[in-house]
Each structure stands twice: as structure tokens, then as C-alpha cells.
Design goal:
Layout lengths: L5 E3 L2 E6 L4 E8 L6 E4 L1 E8 L2 E8 L10 E14 L5 E13 L2 E10 L8 E3 L1 H4 L3 E3 L12 H7 L11 E6 L5 H12 L3 E6 L3 E4 L6 E4 L3 E2 L5 E4 L6 H13 L3 E2 L3 H8 L1 H10 L7 E5 L4 H7 L5 E5 L8 E4 L2 H13 L3 E6 L7 E8 L2 E9 L14 E4 L4 H13 L4 E9 L2 E8 L5 H7 L3 H14 L1
Parallel strand pairs: 1-11, 3-10, 4-9, 12-13, 12-17, 17-18
Antiparallel strand pairs: 2-3, 4-10, 5-6, 6-7, 7-8, 8-9, 14-15, 15-16, 19-22, 20-21, 20-22, 23-24, 23-26, 24-25, 26-27
Helix pairs in contact: 3-11, 4-5
């Protein structure tokens, strides 16, 4: 047995000098190939033309007050299978590990280990050629007492200077969600990505709570930005209502999101507020197909499933026969359908106006891909900057107000009758409009929170 190897127990204390982490307890696990470090608020960025990543770490178990802000050069990404069988793509960094005055470079993956017992897992890749493990022993290199930890990390119990803001969404890798997290951090706020599926709630008249993965209670949030995908509307809005019950400011309310997702109700609301829309018919498996077609001015016309999103369940019927076929096909599903006049003169173009706090902050024109009639970027359409009229701005602001949305993507089509409203989106994407206009829309959303909380 080589005598120059360090002998470790199954648990040991180590440090990461380059990350300014002076002491952290590690689970020594030769059964795990990859080493992992607990990290939250993980955000990649560019530094001197290279890819870096910044992240926060709570280095002490069961202590969320002590926070270390870290930065490291990004080595890459790696798909890691956890002990529970869950596969996750993680950022990988390379940094110096120090154990008992021995220092060497190791690769570490970054992941949220809140639900795990240890903030650090030391895998066999990092130990290869340097370490022997005695699994029956612990802390062969010495222990660090609770009092010592308090002294070591005293300066890291930093007072909160910004707001604590949660982004309630499903995909942390989505452009819009990443941009909002980045914009909040750049304005000095403590940003947390809250995965809808990993939240669960306690309904209580005196003390309502929301719990997160690992039993962590989500508390002391100043604001939440709901970014709820259509398939998660019911549960996402339930969580948003729970945050509202906890007196947390929500950038869009649960009630506003719910009504915006109901195509029929939203159109009725808009009409009640004097917003013009294309002539629309609504039916549930209609018997009078012929009259329904006449009601909207005949063909060509658009047939929409009431539950469709992002252009799915939307069909252009160019002839009466085609319209009857589509309506009858939907009828066989016993589905609720909207039949809407087709604005031919729009020539496959529409406008997306982004409204924040009653003001149009950006606008773009979307153009359908060749052979398509829907101006949808998800379907190969293009986006470009456009100058909108005062009337179009007025319609967008009125529509957002009618829906009671502080943040809204308002879709308008230019017709021979003037501008007509197509739809109001409560979780509008940022990629197309930021790319087309070069405007910091995510930053405007954060400013709206600051302004509302100040009030």
C-alpha cells in the first residue's frame, strides 16, 4: 500500500481556496464517479471572452443564512445520474481542493443539494491516485466545531440589500427565465428559480406555507414572477394564489393569469372594455355548421380549439367545404371551438406589443414562414422591429388593463377596419422581442417590481 496517499474516512472537512470557501463538510463516496458541490442561483456569464459561472452556496448544513458568492471558469456541462436515478444536466467547474494542507485541482459539478445531507460530495475521479478511503472511520483529518464555523463564516452572514424575488416557472434553461434571473441579479436582488413541480403547499388560515424540494419552506420572499406554461396553468395559478395569501407581491395575479388563459372569457372581457376583435363565433359541437360559418362572414375563416396554445389547434379553412370538414372533425371530439374571420389583408403578419405596468415598452412585427398563415416564431416565422401607431398602443394598454395584467404580450393584427386584437398572453416570451428591439425587457419587469413594492 503506497504510504504517500491520504487516508480519508467516509466524512471529512475540506476547503476550496479559489472559491473563498474555508470549510465545508464532504461525503467521501468512492461509489460516485463525479464530485458535486451544492449551489443555488447558478448563472453563466462571459468574462474576458471566456465562459464563467457564478453561483451561491450555503456551506453549512441546515443553514440558509450563511451565503458565499462564488465565480469560476466554466469547463462545460455534463449529464449526471443521481443516486435516485434522476438524470440532470449540470455545469462543471475546475477548482483547487484542499484537504489536510494538500491541494490539487478537481472537477466539480454544480447542483442544488438542499435535499441531501452534505453540501459536498467527493467522488472517485477527484480522489484517484491521491486518496485511500477507510469507510468505517470519520474525520480522520480532524473536525471543525460549530463555534469554529460561526467564527469562520461570521462575515458571510451578510445583510440583505436587495429584494428576494422568485421566478415561478418550469424550465430554468428557457431564455426568458434565464434573462429575468440575470436582470434581477444585475440590479442587486436575491433571485431564486422555483420549479413549479417541486413546490407543494400547506393550506392554513393562520400560517399558509409553500414548501420546496427537500422540505425547505419558501419564506421571506418580497416578490414572485409567475412564468406559467399553459399545461401547468391550474397548479401554477394555485401556487401563485398561495403566495398572494402569504402577502407576497406577484407581478401577475393568479386571477389575471387564469382569465387570460380562457380564450372565450378573455375575448368577452376585451369586448366589454371596448377592444375590437375579429368577428368570432363560439360553439360546442354545433349542429348548425352552415350558420356558424355565415355568422363570421363566410370563408376563408380560422377554426380554433378553445384549449390550443402557440398556434396548435388552429386551422385555416379556405373554402366552405373545408370549413365544414374541420368543424365536423372537431365536433367528433366534442370540443369547444372558436370560428373567426380571416384577415387576408394582414398578409401573414401581426404585431406583438409588450406592456409592463400600463405602458408599451417594446413592439415587434412577426411574419409567418412561407406557406404558413400564422405569424408564429415557434413555427419558423421571423420578427423585426416596427413602429406602432398611437391607436395600437392604446389598444394594447387597454387590453392589458382589461385582463388586469401588469405584464402582457398583446397580439394585434392590422385589418382594413383598423387594428384588431387577437390575443393577450400573460407569460410572453422575451427572446424574440429582445432580439428584435435590443431592449432590456427583463430589466423593465424587475423595475416594475421595485416600483410596486416601493409604493
Amino acid at each position: 500500500m503506497p504510504l504517500n496517499k491520504i487516508i480519508l474516512g467516509s466524512e471529512e472537512w475540506c476547503s476550496f481556496p479559489e472559491l473563498q470557501i474555508p470549510a465545508i463538510k464532504a461525503r467521501v463516496d468512492s461509489g460516485a464517479k463525479t464530485s458535486a458541490l451544492h449551489a443555488i442561483n447558478i448563472a453563466p456569464f462571459i468574462k474576458d471572452g471566456e465562459n464563467w459561472v457564478k453561483f451561491d452556496i450555503n456551506p453549512i448544513q441546515k443553514n440558509l443564512k450563511t451565503v458565499i458568492h462564488c465565480e469560476a471558469l466554466l469547463v462545460g456541462k455534463r449529464v449526471v445520474k443521481s443516486s435516485s436515478g434522476f438524470r440532470e444536466q449540470r455545469y462543471v467547474i475546475q477548482t483547487n481542493l484542499n484537504i489536510a494542507n494538500n491541494t490539487w485541482k478537481i472537477e466539480v459539478t454544480l447542483t442544488n443539494r438542499d435535499s441531501m445531507g452534505f453540501r459536498m460530495l467527493l467522488g472517485r475521479e477527484a480522489m484517484s491516485g491521491r486518496v485511500l478511503v477507510d469507510p468505517e472511520q470519520k474525520y480522520l483529518l480532524g473536525e471543525t466545531s460549530t463555534e469554529s464555523l460561526k467564527s469562520i463564516y461570521k462575515a458571510s452572514d451578510i445583510a440583505k440589500t436587495g429584494l428576494k424575488i422568485g421566478v415561478l416557472a418550469s424550465n430554468p434553461e428557457l431564455y426568458s427565465n434565464k434573462r429575468i434571473m440575470e436582470a434581477g441579479e444585475m440590479r442587486g436582488h436575491e433571485m431564486h428559480f422555483l420549479n413549479i413541480k417541486e413546490c407543494y403547499m400547506k393550506l392554513d388560515a393562520d400560517k399558509p406555507e409553500i414548501h420546496y424540494r427537500g422540505g425547505k419552506i419558501l419564506e421571506n420572499f418580497d416578490a414572485v414572477i409567475p412564468r406559467i406554461r399553459p399545461s401547468m396553468t391550474f397548479y401554477g395559478c394555485a401556487l401563485t394564489r398561495q403566495f398572494e395569501a402569504m402577502k407576497v407581491f406577484c407581478l401577475n395575479s393568479a386571477a389575471a393569469i387564469t382569465q387570460s388563459r380562457d380564450k372565450l372569457f378573455s375575448l368577452q372581457l376585451l369586448l366589454r372594455h371596448g377592444v375590437d376583435i375579429p368577428t368570432t363565433g363560439f360553439a360546442n359541437s354545433p349542429l348548425d355548421t352552415d350558420d356558424l360559418i355565415k355568422m363570421v362572414g363566410g370563408t376563408p375563416l380560422i377554426v380554433k380549439l378553445l384549449e390550443g396554445t402557440q398556434g396548435k389547434g388552429v386551422v385555416l379553412a379556405e373554402t366552405k367545404k373545408a370549413a365544414e370538414s374541420v368543424i365536423n372533425a372537431f365536433k367528433s371530439l366534442n370540443a369547444n371551438i372558436l370560428v373567426q374571420e380571416f384577415i387576408k389583408e394582414a398578409n401573414g403578419k401581426d404585431l406583438r406589443l409588450f406592456v409592463i405596468d400600463g405602458k408599451v415598452v417594446a413592439a415587434m412585427q412577426r411574419e409567418a414562414a412561407p406557406g404558413e398563415f400564422r405569424a408564429n416564431i415557434h413555427m419558423g416565422g421571423t420578427a423585426s422591429v416596427v413602429k406602432v401607431t398611437a391607436e395600437e398602443k392604446k389598444i394594447a394598454v387597454r387590453a392589458a388593463k382589461a385582463m388586469d395584467l401588469r405584464v402582457a404580450g398583446v397580439d394585434i393584427i392590422r385589418s382594413s377596419k383598423g387594428p384588431l386584437l387577437l390575443e393577450v398572453n400573460s407569460s410572453p416570451g422575451l427572446e424574440g422581442i429582445e432580439g428584435a428591439t435590443n431592449k432590456d425587457i427583463a430589466g423593465e419587469m424587475i423595475k416594475a417590481i421595485e416600483k410596486s413594492i416601493k409604493k
